[in-house]
């Protein structure tokens, strides 16, 4: 009977994400929650009725280190040279702000949340890159599946509140506090912008299991990256050290992205995102309701402190460095949410000139998030335990 339940769990993880993507596009409220959260929620609900879900976690642990290089394969990091100095400076200030405030949050919550350094590292990865970084860092630092769900749920609540501000009042507030926008100097390359949007904005491409099968060769390259990482971990530590594996697969993803045939191969970002959704379903299926108590509120408080604290620090740094309002907002969006949210925020500001530099900053965040998050978590562990 266990075999039957295992097969059912595998089928749910394979086909469930497609359903959640479809629901998020068709139902406005669900679209605000996003496919990742829906996959978590769907997995948690199904865990209540399925008697055997252990295989879900076994599969989930393999998916993230394959997904990370896939997401990075299409990252044209040479495009960073297109960024004007104020745009690049603003993004770097955002990284500094997130790192500093996450460190402060760690010292505030370390006596309340066990192993708070892990969540500080996840926060840094999340708010400089995006959800894939949060999951990769959580896996690397052996955070329990239940606490990864709580961390993502906290981000959905806190991030949802700020996103509503971003597309409503925040542009007016920022323009009163900071100087007016000045041309970022990225150039009007319509074809290049369209290409970037198609690669990194989910609504611009077909998102389905059929597409994964169609792009199987690029998936194999992701598996090869994991194999390389596992080999290096075994060579240097004699074990499958997850920290080393996550850092090496990130490096492989960046390294392979400089090969034009890999970078221009269609579908790698979409396939990576689909694997992240499968991972989310697996984590949801493995959720432990015993962790739903004070830990959930403390996690929410830590993430809220980190996000809104880093936003305030970033705005103050931009004010001190004379960076304009639209540049400040689009680079903070790139760090906090990743490339997928650049277009709606740019539209809310009525400024399409910031779309391209915003997308580039978001891609840069994906590339550096894992290094920063894991590095800071290890440093905080030694500093404060």
Key structural traits:
385 residues, mainly alpha, 19 helices, globular
Question: Please, could you describe this protein's structure?
Answer:
The mean pLDDT is 85. With 385 residues, the protein is an all-alpha fold. It has 19 helices and no strands. The chain has one domain (57-384). Helix 1 packs across helix 4. The protein is globular and about 65 Å long. The longest helix is centred in the C-terminal third of the chain and has 30 residues, at 355-384.
Blueprint of the fold:
Elements lengths: L1 H25 L1 H6 L1 H13 L6 H20 L11 H25 L6 H13 L2 H10 L4 H22 L3 H8 L12 H11 L8 H6 L1 H22 L4 H16 L2 H4 L4 H18 L8 H27 L4 H13 L4 H8 L5 H30 L1
**Strand content range:** under 5%
Question: What global shape is seen?
Answer: globular
Total number of helices: 19
**Can you give the helix content as a percent range?**
over 70%
In short:
By secondary structure, this protein is an all-alpha fold. The chain has helices at 2-26, 28-33, 35-47, 54-73, 85-109, 116-128, 131-140, 145-166, 170-177, 190-200, 209-214, 216-237, 242-257, 260-263, 268-285, 294-320, 325-337, 342-349, 355-384.
């Amino acid at each position: 009977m266990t075999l039957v339940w295992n097969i059912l769990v595998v089928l749910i993880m394979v086909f469930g994400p497609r359903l959640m993507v479809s629901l998020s596009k068709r139902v406005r409220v669900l679209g605000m929650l996003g496919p990742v959260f829906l996959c978590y929620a769907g997995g948690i609900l199904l865990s209540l009725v399925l008697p055997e879900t252990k295989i879900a976690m076994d599969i989930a642990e393999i998916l993230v280190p394959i997904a990370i290089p896939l997401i990075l394969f299409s990252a044209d990091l040479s495009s960073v040279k297109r960024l004007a100095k104020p745009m690049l400076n603003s993004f770097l200030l955002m990284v500094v702000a997130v790192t500093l405030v996450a460190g402060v949050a760690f010292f505030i919550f370390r006596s309340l949340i066990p192993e708070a350094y892990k969540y500080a590292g996840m926060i840094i990865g999340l708010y400089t890159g995006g959800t894939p970084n949060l999951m990769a860092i959580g896996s690397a630092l052996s955070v329990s599946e239940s606490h990864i769900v709580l961390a993502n749920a906290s981000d959905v609540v806190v991030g949802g509140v700020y996103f509503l501000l971003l597309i409503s009042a925040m542009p007016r507030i920022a323009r009163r506090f900071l100087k007016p926008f000045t041309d970022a100097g990225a150039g009007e390359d319509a074809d290049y912008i369209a290409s970037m949007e198609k690669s990194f904005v989910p609504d611009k491409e077909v998102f389905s299991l059929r597409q994964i099968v169609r792009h199987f060769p690029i998936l194999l390259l992701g598996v090869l990256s994991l194999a390389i990482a596992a080999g290096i971990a075994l060579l240097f530590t004699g074990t499958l050290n997850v920290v080393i594996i996550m850092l090496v697969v990130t490096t492989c993803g960046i390294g392979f992205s400089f090969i034009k045939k890999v970078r221009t191969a269609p579908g790698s970002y979409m396939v990576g995102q689909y694997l992240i959704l499968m991972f989310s379903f697996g984590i949801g299926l493995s959720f432990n309701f015993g962790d739903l108590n004070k830990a959930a509120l403390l996690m929410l408080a830590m993430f809220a402190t980190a996000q809104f604290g880093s936003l305030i620090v970033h705005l103050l740094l931009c004010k001190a460095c004379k960076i304009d309002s639209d540049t400040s907002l689009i680079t903070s969006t790139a760090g906090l949410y990743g490339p997928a949210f650049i277009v709606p925020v740019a539209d809310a500001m009525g400024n399409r000139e910031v779309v391209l530099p915003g997308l580039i900053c978001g891609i840069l965040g994906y590339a550096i998030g894992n290094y920063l998050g894991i590095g800071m978590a290890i440093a905080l562990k030694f500093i404060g335990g």
